[in-house]
């Protein structure tokens, strides 16, 4: 499994990378949506993207709309991981094609639970972070 | 750091956040970033006192829209470096670069500010963080609506919320 972590904070990317790497994911990182699109166009097509909302250059919502506009990327699972918690924006992101939504702060278990719900992780792997 | 504000006083809801709510959400963010055993304790500081650490990192985010305000986090230098080391998984604080501190403190205020925004009337927008080494200086068109003086391992941490006057 491959995960792309898209967040303008290196520190937050580091936290998320440790979580998903411990679960066995190969990871790739981007500091904003455009950089993430560049990775996709260069051939790193992940199983899941973990996406911040509020980023410079290209925000997470725009990234989702760009990914969903390309049929070649329709199998990528998109999960927002963000402080943006207004109901209208959560609805917007889900309507645009996000599959799941995690609000910061989060625990590693919350990420694991969402990945399980999305079918990207078997429940038996729960102990990986214990 | 001079905090710049771009408020529209005609459209702002001047409601102030409940300090207890801000304390709880700050603790939630802190525990998520640093671990369940890393508690923030209250610290008695006279009203109006400047942040009293020898070395300081400060970071702000601005909320605009249905509610308007500035959320600021000020940290003792050593606290900022330890926070950064933990978030980036760097052992010790000597090897933590200033750029990494700015990044980690910016994410801290982003999380605190985003959660303060969620407490207040919307819709509103959160700015990207502004981070600097040094105390935050606020313009005269804002007033302090909420301030938490806290301590982590004995070192000072301050979270404040300013709103338009």
UniProtKB/TrEMBL annotation, chain A:
Entry keyword set: Phosphoprotein, Two-component regulatory system
Domain Response regulatory: 2-119
Chain positions found as 4-aspartylphosphate: 52
Keyword Phosphoprotein: yes
Any coiled-coil regions, as ranges: none
GO biological process, one term: phosphorelay signal transduction system
InterPro entries: Bact_response_regulator, CheY-like_superfamily, Sig_transdc_resp-reg_receiver
Keyword Phosphoprotein: yes
The name this protein goes by in its record: Response regulator
Organism encoding this protein: Nocardioides caeni
Phylogenetic lineage: Bacteria, Bacillati, Actinomycetota, Actinomycetes, Propionibacteriales
UniProtKB/TrEMBL annotation, chain B:
Domain Chemotaxis phosphatase CheX-like residue range list: 58-135
Parts forming coiled coils: none
Gene3D superfamilies the UniProt entry points to: CheC-like (3.40.1550.10)
Keyword terms of this UniProt record: Chemotaxis
Swiss-Prot/TrEMBL GO biological process terms: chemotaxis
Domain of life, per lineage: Bacteria
Keyword Zinc: no
Xref: InterPro entries: CheC-like_sf, CheX-like_dom
Name of this chain's protein: Chemotaxis protein CheX
């Amino acid at each position: 499994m491959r995960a792309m972590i898209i967040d303008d904070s290196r520190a937050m990317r580091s936290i998320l990378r440790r979580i998903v790497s411990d679960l066995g994911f190969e990871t790739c990182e981007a500091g904003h949506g455009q950089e993430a699109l560049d990775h996709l166009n260069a051939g790193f097509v992940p199983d899941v993207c973990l996406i911040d909302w509020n980023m410079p250059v290209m925000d997470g919502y725009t990234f989702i709309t760009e990914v969903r506009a390309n049929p070649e990327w329709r199998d990528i699972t998109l999960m927002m991981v963000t402080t943006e918690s207004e109901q209208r924006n959560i609805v917007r992101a889900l309507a645009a094609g996000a599959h799941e939504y995690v609000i910061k702060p989060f625990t590693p278990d919350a990420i694991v639970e969402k990945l399980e719900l999305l079918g990207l992780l078997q429940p038996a792997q729960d102990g990986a972070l214990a | 750091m001079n905090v710049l504000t771009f408020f529209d006083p005609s459209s702002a809801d001047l409601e102030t956040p409940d300090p207890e709510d801000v304390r709880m959400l700050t603790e939630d963010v802190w525990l998520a970033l640093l671990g369940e055993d890393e508690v923030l304790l209250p610290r008695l500081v006279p009203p109006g006192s400047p942040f009293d650490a020898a070395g300081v990192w400060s970071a702000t985010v601005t909320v605009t829209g249905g509610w308007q305000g500035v959320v600021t986090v000020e940290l003792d230098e050593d606290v900022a470096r330890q926070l950064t080391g933990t978030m980036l998984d760097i052992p010790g604080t000597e090897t933590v670069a200033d750029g990494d501190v700015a990044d980690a403190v910016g994410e801290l205020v982003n999380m605190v500010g985003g959660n303060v925004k969620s407490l207040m009337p919307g819709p509103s927008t959160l700015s990207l963080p502004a981070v600097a080494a040094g105390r935050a200086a606020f313009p005269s068109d804002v007033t302090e609506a909420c301030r938490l003086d806290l301590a982590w391992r004995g070192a000072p941490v301050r979270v404040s919320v300013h709103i338009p006057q």
